[in-house]
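Input sequence (119 aa), recorded before submission:
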Amino acid sequence: MKSFLFFSIMALSSLSWAAQDWKVVAVTTNDCKEKIQVLAKEGESFVYLDDGSTKTKLFAVDGSAYSEQSGKMISFSNSLDKTSLEKYTFTQPSMVDPNPAKIHIASNGLKANCKMKLK
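Predicted structure, C-alpha cell format:
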C-alpha cells in the first residue's frame, strides 16, 4: 500500500512539473472576436492553441522548434489535420522582426486574421 501511494505521488508530481513548462506566449488583441491563447514550451516543434473550450495542437510548418529568442519567423499550423473543421496558423515573428505575432483562422468558409500580443 505504501509503495502504491509513493508511486501515485511521484506520478502526480511529474505531471504537475511537466505542466509548468507550458506557458501562454501570445493572446489575441481586442480587435479579434475570438479570444485565443497560444501555449508553448521551449524546444517543442508544436504549440497549443486554446480558445477557451478546446485545445488544438499546431505543428511547425518547417519542423522548427519554438524558441522565445528565435532568430527567424516560425509558422505553426494544423492544416494537415483532416479531422479539424477549423484551420489555424499562428505566426511567431523573429526576435528582430517589427511585425506583431498573428493568427489566421479559417472556419466554414470564413477567414479571419488577428493580431496577437506576445506575453
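Checked by second reader. The mean pLDDT is 83.
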